[in-house]
């Protein structure tokens, strides 16, 4: 069995009182693939991208990957 998932998130501050350096908006995208070759074992890989815009300063990006394995007893 194989499953593929995608998740998207967006946040925007609706506050004009933000100070310098606080997050004005943020976006994340998660993509993962989970494979179950036999009934008692599952493994998956996920990629995550994130972007933040900070008031009055800069924006930042992050990209990470992770792997997981599950053993069922």
- Uncertain segments of ≥5 residues (pLDDT<50)? none
Distance between the termini: 19 Å
Main-sheet strand order equals 1-2-3-4
SSE order, one letter for each helix or strand:
EEEE
Please report the total strand number as a whole number.
4
Largest sheet: 4 strands, antiparallel
Q: What percent of residues are in strands? A: over 45%
Assign the structural class, choosing from mainly alpha, mainly beta, alpha/beta, alpha+beta, or little secondary structure.
Answer: mainly beta
Shape: elongated
Q: Tally the helices: what do you get?
A: 0
Average pLDDT score = 92
Helical fraction equals: under 10%
Radius of gyration computed on alpha carbons: 18 Å
Strand-helix topology:
Blueprint: E1 2-12, E2 23-38, E3 41-54, E4 59-71
Antiparallel strand pairs: 1-2, 2-3, 3-4
Describe it for me?
It contains no helices and 4 strands. Strands 1-2-3-4 form a 4-stranded antiparallel β-sheet, with no helix packed on it. It is an all-beta fold. It is elongated and about 55 Å long. It has strands at 2-12, 23-38, 41-54, 59-71. The model has no long low-confidence stretch (mean pLDDT 92).
């Amino acid at each position: 069995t194989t499953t593929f998932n995608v998740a998207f998130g967006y946040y925007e501050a609706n506050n004009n009182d933000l100070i310098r350096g606080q997050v004005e908006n943020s976006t994340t995208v998660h993509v993962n693939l989970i494979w179950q070759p036999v009934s008692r074992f599952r493994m998956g890989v996920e990629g995550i991208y994130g972007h933040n815009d900070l008031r009055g300063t800069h924006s930042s990006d992050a990209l990470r990957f992770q792997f997981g394995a599950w053993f069922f007893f």
